[in-house]
Structure formats: structure tokens, C-alpha cells
Design goal:
Pfam families: MDMPI_N (PF11716). By secondary structure, the protein is an alpha+beta fold. Helix content is 50%, strand content 7%. The protein contains 9 helices and 4 strands. The longest helix is centred in the middle third of the chain and has 20 residues, at 92-111.
């Protein structure tokens, strides 16, 4: 018998691209309406980076994917810094234009990569949440893309043999199973909402989040980007 948790082991190749386009349609209009000083705001989740830096990083990464440019060291901190520096002379609007194109064009390439690039789509969606958080906008690490983001997170953590966790989420009717113990470790337990779970798994600040319960595992063990 197939359980809801087992469904997340089956890859939907369109899911990463769908997550990106859902976020594109929400984020780009928000960015178009922002003043220049908003792009200079520091992003708490990415120390040392401004909103513009985060957007430049995302637009560069998605453009690389869309164009199939995966040179040695790509997506390393050094590569990310070079990508941001290369866009230093661009206007904010040009960065947003590239981001909009990338969020649409990268999906088919990610779909055809067999799962190797799925986590990049999740990471870009999380960065969009970083920007929303910086602006004080509702829906950071949530919104219409949350179901696809949670499904991706569950599958990626299981494929990687991440620490096991059973999550009872306010946002889903059925429990979500993340990670894989192989029988060696009993799963931890999370009770709370989906955006908070995303924050825990991506090392984002927890200031002001709704109350949640986490047992049997340390928060630092969950971070997939740590």
C-alpha cells in the first residue's frame, strides 16, 4: 500500500520548474514596484549580501542552468561572488529582467537533468523567501509554491539519507516524512507549519515564527545547506 510519504519518493520532473514559475509570477511584480534603496537592504539570511546581491546570484545561477554552462567550480562561493561582481554595472531592472527570464527558462533543463539540479530550484525559491522576509512581505518561505517545495524537500532529504524526521504540518492533511534512517535511528518529530520547517532545513532565522515543537533531533542537523 502506498502512503502519502511514499509518494514523495517518485520524482515529478516538472515540479522544480513549476516551483520556479509560481515564484516568478509572485516575486517579479513585487520587485518591479520597489525603489532603488530597497535593493540595497541587507539580507539577514545571507550575511554580507544585499537584496540586489541575492537577486544577482539567483539570476546568474538560473541563466547558467538555462544555457548549460557548468564549468569547474560553478556554484561555489567564489563563483557566486564573481557572478555578482559581473553584474555590478547593471541596473536593478536588468538584474530583475535576467531573473525573470531564468525562472522560466531553467525549468526544462532541470527537468531533463534526472534530479541532479532539483535542489537548485528549491534553493532559488528559498532565496525568494529571503527577499520577501527582508521586505517584510507576507508569504516568506510559503505561499502558492509551498506544496511543491515541501515535496521537493522530502524527496531530496530521503535521496540523500538525511536525518529522519516525521513532520505534522498545519499546511498538509497527512504527515510528511523526510530523510532516511535505514532503521539505524528513530525519526525525530516536528509539529508546526510548513514555512517554519523550510526555515529549519535551510538554516534561516527563526525570529518571530509561530510556535513549533521539535523532538529527537537538533535543529542544526536538519540544515541541507550547512
Amino acid at each position: 500500500m502506498t502512503t502519502p510519504a511514499d509518494v514523495h519518493d517518485v520524482r515529478d520532473p516538472e515540479q522544480p520548474g513549476r516551483l520556479l514559475t509560481i515564484e516568478r509570477d509572485a516575486l517579479i511584480p513585487l520587485l518591479r514596484g520597489r525603489a532603488g534603496e530597497d535593493f540595497a537592504r541587507p539580507v539577514a539570511a545571507c550575511p554580507g549580501w544585499t537584496v540586489r546581491d541575492v537577486l544577482a546570484h539567483c539570476s546568474a545561477a538560473l541563466t547558467r542552468v538555462a544555457e548549460g554552462r557548468f564549468e569547474k567550480g560553478v556554484f561555489s562561493p567564489e563563483s557566486n561572488d564573481r557572478d555578482i561582481a559581473e553584474r555590478a554595472g547593471w541596473t536593478d531592472a536588468q538584474v530583475v529582467d535576467e531573473l525573470e527570464r531564468g525562472m522560466g527558462a531553467a525549468g526544462p533543463v532541470i527537468a531533463g537533468a534526472g534530479g541532479k539540479l532539483d535542489i537548485l530550484a528549491l534553493g532559488e525559491w528559498v532565496h525568494a523567501g529571503d527577499v520577501r522576509e527582508t521586505f517584510g512581505e507576507p508569504g516568506a518561505y510559503g505561499g502558492a509554491g509551498l506544496p511543491d517545495a515541501l515535496a521537493l524537500l522530502a524527496r531530496i532529504t530521503r535521496e540523500r539519507g538525511h536525518v529522519p524526521l516525521h513532520a505534522d504540518l498545519d499546511d498538509l492533511d497527512e504527515p510528511l516524512r523526510l530523510g532516511e534512517s535505514g532503521g539505524e535511528r528513530p525519526p525525530g518529530r516536528f509539529i508546526g507549519d510548513g514555512p517554519t520547517l523550510v526555515r529549519l532545513y535551510t538554516g534561516r532565522p527563526l525570529d518571530g515564527v509561530p510556535a513549533f515543537e521539535l523532538a529527537g533531533v537538533e535543529a542544526k542537523e536538519l540544515n541541507i545547506f550547512g
